[in-house]
Amino acid sequence: MKKRRLIMRTIILFVLAAAVVYTLYANFTKDHRQKVAEGDPAPDFVLVDMQGNKHRLSDYRGQGVFLNFWGTWCPPCKKEMPYINNQYHQFKDKGVKVLSVDIQESELAVNQFAERLKLNFPIMIDQDKEVMTAYGVDLLPATFLIDKNGNVVKYHTGELTENKIREFMEKIKP
Amino acid sequence: MNDVKCECGHVNPHGTVLCEACGKVLDERDQSGKLLDMRYEGSARRSQTYNKTVIDKIWNFFSSVKVGVWLIVITLLASIIGTILPQEMYINLPPEVYYEQEHGWFGKLYYQLGFHDLYGSWWYLLLIAMIGISLVICSLDRVVPLYKALKAQRVTRHEGFLKRQRLFGINEAFDQGDQDLVKQHLIQKRYQIREENGDILAEKGRFSRWGPYVNHVGLIIFLFGGMLRFIPGYYVEENLWVREGETALVPETGEKYYIQNNQFILEHYDKEENKKFEKALERAGQVVQNYQSNVVLYERVSENLPGEKPELKKLKEYKVRVNHPLTFDGYSVYQSSFRSEMTAMSFSLANKESGQTFGDFTIDLKAPKSEYDLGNGYVVKILNFFPDFEFDKNGEPSTKSRVPNNPAFVFTMITPDKPKGETSFVAIRQTIEPFGDNVYKVAFKGIETQNVSGFIVRKDSSLWAIILGGIIFMIGVVQGAYWNHRRIWVQNKNGQIWIAAHTNKNWYGLKRELETILANTKLTMPEDQLQKEDDGDKEEA
Questions:
Q1: Pick the CATH number of A46-172 from 3.40.30.10, 3.40.50.720, 3.30.450.20, 3.20.20.150
Q2: Of B46, B251, B399, the CB nearest to A73
Q3: What is the mean pLDDT of each run of 10 residues along chain B (541 residues)?
Q4: CB contact A86 to B (< 8 Å)
């Protein structure tokens, strides 16, 4: 009798505690929940760059992909772009691809921006914010590092230094 | 910790006050002769009996009604605190700025203590959760022994039990006719009668005892519904802005549904049409009659990747108005806001002195072209485009966002007499000529605007639990409030007829009922011993 009671009580308390812990955990993480977290497979997408070339993420399996979301109006994006460009040249023959996605801006704005900063890597415009939504990007700039198996190794928001970019590219070099 | 065997032969759990079967007082200390405490039928509330392991200690803590009441009081106080200043979601400045700026040191403290998001704070949730736990354990700890005690009760009761009921009386004589009549009256009053050796137990409305527990089950389901909202995808509330003519993905639908906004309509009340309210309308000015977006709902039918143009199938057309949301697949899309956005600006190229113009051009702000050829050798090139213009920290022209709230351009004007071009910076009501005096200017002609509808996309899959919980809650309230659990004992003791009665509430109603039951018999109405006690006290005083 007594033993059964103890077991019953333990089970009931355990169920209640589990519900409470889950709720608190869910509440705690709801603001930080990342749609595509580190370790997740990177959602595939197709975008056309400013030169008209089609880029499909899964076509770059076997290479590392440095995926950068940005806007011409965002000052830290502007700052890190030349660094990304430098490192793009360093790593382009070492199997690291740079894909840079502008969020919903006009071609004119993006072209002028690219010309002014002399950017050489492929730039594409996410006209309907679909890729941005798929990756759950909120703040710009946002950078995803995708390894040769198509998994997200790292997600970074905010401005990057040139050293950081080199380190990142080194990380996903196949 | 042994079970207690009563002299009637029934074995009671340890801690029982009144024998479940015959009602004899088991607690040796309580031989005072005062009225019995009939709460929970004198059953053993186990929590108060077993207190050995950690589990028991936790269990006993939550089993206490006192603890439950304190939890509710603390939660109420906390909820009050949350209403002193507006919560985070109702302010439109960053919280770290707002509270100090608007409410001084108190606001700063309020923010530092985390009261700006009080109802979403972990400790508030913990309080609610503890109330939930207290509810479950308090209920379990009482309903089980109560159920067992009521089930185990025998017809024949111990003398001490009957004597110490609030309504109690002794009659000397009894004849068969009276007994039949009493039984007949009891049946008329819908009592359930059990008989044993000529003793009678009449009982009705026992189910009303379960009212509070049914009510608690409802509350727990309600809380469970609240918990469901934390599961990703169960509760969605997202803003969605769609420009007229555009099709946008509905968020949180798994990239499945799209909405096309054909038109946004804003209507005001017309004084002519509403003669009755003419005065009021004159006083109030423009009064909005209708906010409406004419939309088309699409479903994606192609298996495409983000970035690829999806293939859409039209599902339905709908006029979304306030309180008339578009609903589909558990989602509701409400009309919640609108704004006007610039879509195009038109200019003409003119000679500053003579005012002579050399052609007009219109710039689509979403897709500006790099140059506009006006013919006859007049060309305007866009050197730079700032959709949301401002001067940045270094005094350089820049843009705050991608939205064309305040467009500005740097133009190069190429004309037959100035083939190298003249540069001009043009913003709304502002023209700057960075390289001195120009001969030509780009004159602002007008803007085109477009409405953007603001929707709220909502989905609440927890609603069924909340509604079910609410219904069960009310059933419990009704069950416990509108019915009483009444028992009447008519028993032979020492050749006398003892009558005792108990109800969980509404003693007046029970007395009235007893009067009709005992009517036309020689039996006397039992006395209300509580009133007698009170009267006695008064006389002593």
A1: 3.40.30.10
A2: B399
A3: 79 84 78 77 67 83 92 96 90 84 91 90 92 92 90 90 91 78 92 90 94 94 89 86 89 87 90 80 85 94 82 92 93 92 88 86 88 87 87 80 86 86 84 80 87 93 93 96 94 88 93 92 87 61 41
A4: no
How many angstroms separate the CA atoms of B160 and A51, rounded? 100
Buried-state track B507-533, b at ≥16 Cβ within 10 A, e below 16: beebeebbeebbeebebeebebbeeee
- Distance CA(B121)–CA(A27), nearest Å, equals 8
| Chain A nearest C-alpha distance from B140 (Å) | 10
Beta strands A123-126 and A96-103 are parallel
Q: Please name the member of B50, B232, B307 whose beta carbon is closest to the beta carbon of A126.
A: B307
**Residue of B249, B306, B402 lying closest to A104 (CB–CB):** B402
Domains of chain B and CATH, by start: 4-150 (no CATH), 162-205+485-540 (3.30.310), 235-340+454-467 (no CATH), 341-449 (no CATH)
